Every structure is written in structure tokens, then in C-alpha cells.
Amino acid sequence: MSRVVVADLRAALARLLDAVEGEHGPEVDLDADFYWTVAQDNSAYRFDTANPALTVGSLSDDVDELAALPASTR
Length: 74
Prior knowledge:
Elements: H1 6-24, E1 34-38, E2 54-58, H2 59-68
Antiparallel strand pairs: 1-2
């Protein structure tokens, strides 16, 4: 099993978001709404069985969910 330090993830995400902001500005237009997502069970990590089921996700729904989070959990 691999481990990652949360502070390293935080720093990497900050660099990523800085790059996105540098390229696109303080707001990003979402040209598409829907995307494929892999089932949230362990089947996504099993390579000895059939392919995991795909479902559809929505960026606009994800943005709405993030906006609805209390400030203390963001």
C-alpha cells in the first residue's frame, strides 16, 4: 500500500490551481457538463474481474454541491 503526505497533496493542488488561474484567470468556463465516473466500490481497483460499471457525473452539480458546503468543511 502506498502512502502520501497530506501536506504534499495540498502543495501540489495549490501549484495546480495557481497554474490554472495563470492560464485561465480567476474563473474557469466549464465547456462541458457531463463526464464518466467509475463506480465508487472497490471494483475500480480490481483487475482480475470484469470492467467496473461507469456512471455519469455532472460538473454543474459538483459545483453546486461544493458551494453548498459549510465554510468550515471547505
